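Quick note —
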Amino acid sequence: MTLGVLFSNVDNFAQMEMWRGINDFAKRRDIHLIAYMGTYQSSHDDFASHLDTCFEAICSSKALDGVILFSGFISHLVGGSEVYNAYVKRIPPHIPCVSLSQVVPGVPTVMTDNIGGIYDVVEHLIHVHGKKQIVFVRGPEGHQEAEDRLMGYKQALLDNKIPFDPAYVVPGDFSHEGARRATVELLDKREIPFDAVATSDDITAIQILTEFKRRGIQVPSEVAVTGFDDNRDAATFIPSVSTSRQDFYAMGLQSAEILLRVIGGEKVDRVSYVPSVFIARQSCGCFKRDFGGAKKAVDEVEASSLIPFVLQKLMPLFAPEISPNRAQGLIVGLAKKVMEHPFQKEEFLNMLDEMLVVYSHRSKNYKVWHGVLNALMIGTQRYAREVGNTHLVLETLVHATTLVNDISTNEDRAHENHQSDIRLTLRRVSNALVLIFDIDILAGEICRLLPDVGIHMALVGLYSGPVRSGEPGADRTIETLIGFDGEKRFNIPQNVWSPILFSDFSTIKDFDFNRERRTLFFIPLFFKENEMGVIILPFDPEIAVHAYETLRVNLSTAIKGAELITKIQTISITDELTGLLNRRGFFQFVYSRMEFMNRNEGMVPTVMFMDMDGLKMINDTYGHKEGDRAIAAFASILKETLRKEDIIGRVGGDEFVVFSAIKDKETGGHVVNRLRAKIDEYNARNLHPYKVACSIGSVVLEETTKECFEAAILSADAVLYEEKMEKKKQGISRPL
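Predicted structure written out below.
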């Protein structure tokens, strides 16, 4: 089975986490993956959309069994939901789709549980930190995720018997400027008491924390602040931001599972939700070393069972990572340890440490364990009668975050060390690639250099000419293929792959797609606004994702350079009037051909030297423009008569020369006769007030050497001269 994945770029953390989940699922099920990347990085360091190529490849594919669409990250690149939905409708019905992060009509969708995410944040503020006056900074009105998060805030207040007050909802829009306006609105315009601020995004949370710090408002001792998303600044900001993290990895896993069910003919939900994970940090009052700031919000609660509560909270988080039975065992084990009388702090921490080590063999997604600790915190408060020492348990749970952070940090350090080595190698490889301006040399260097960065397969397909961005009905047929697959090398010019763009890998001769399970990146090659082809690279989680964009940029530059050099070379060796080779080009190609013939015996080299008859008379009588037309006409006759492999050159004003490889000397005479017959046919059409004519000298080379070739040129010229003299004696050299 082969699944496609359409996403925008590899530099986006959320998309790469989703991709990682999809890839892990595919590995377990032995499924091929082809990821289509429909953007390129512009000089402004943003990503310009060029999704036409990818959509065309998907729509024409005979290999894909289904496609996962990163809709929430793509739709704005093509002009909004309506335009994007029209793109999706182009995908044939036999290729089922699943959408991520945005609802697409008629397509099953996987979304983050935004309602539950904010609900958990507010519950944490209420139960762990005793907050009652909680301000909520919402996202933009009409935005689905923003509306869901507002609903989660309202539901948490309702369930905890805290009246909802619209004055405590401040408008925001997920931007820095919106966060600044929200802060001014809250502090300078709304006269309301508050002890916590829950925001719909981390950008807003960080902006509010910055303004609080400027105004001398102490966080978290006076006010607790939380965010949503867990972006890259949330953990490093001081104080670190407590936030609800979208589990993008689990979303990727679930999207692949749903797509497999759709392919199998099962009915699935229109929208499926993945729970987010609350991560407790400093900004809400959860410190690693001290739990003194946390309050006991509930003095007396109904004595129920802690275990069903944490199971309900945590099973959805663990399910994508490990089996349900194993997950339940971990959760119940920790919950029972919390409920022991007396509670043993060191035993609990040792048990958690052991669980983390075992878990590390299955997954590197340690953020799940922040959700575990948070659920135990809330459960400890809700079911306090089942816990022997509530305060000690809560303090231990906060301390336990250090274990999660430490093992996660160690993994990150090991990964970063490995990536540092790869970056140095990638820099060397990139510098080498960008200095290559010849396709044949590039083909060899790709095979030699890419394995150095852990890439053991690459296919580069080049169009017959560059395609302008947005060009309607552009021809993206691949004409040239270079690359390698393990030990197999490809350098195939003058070929055509149809349907286009490797949409069916079986069309590539000698490429065994099913030799192993493949996870491939399908990446269009761009130079500014020109698309030149595509590259297929294998995905390896050990390779930094930015390496793919770096290779794309450098290969695109090399290919563009080769194209420009080819144009310059063509101009330098081509006669402008006739399009034939000039003297330099003719000799260059002949010497190259003779080297080939020396390695491949069996052909007889021959030289034909030709001189047009009466060109001076045509120029004197009809003008030089007409003389140029006569020269161009004669050149066309040569090209029509001779074979493609024959080398034809214009080496003087009215002098032409042909180098040909023939079977025997007799064949050379047939070529000359065929040429004379073609000239007679042309003149019979009476296209000019004169006749196109020429004298020909033909000589067979004794040896394929430069010296012999140059001597043959002189000999052919002498034979030609004798023919001219004979024509003058007979009075037939005049073209009129």
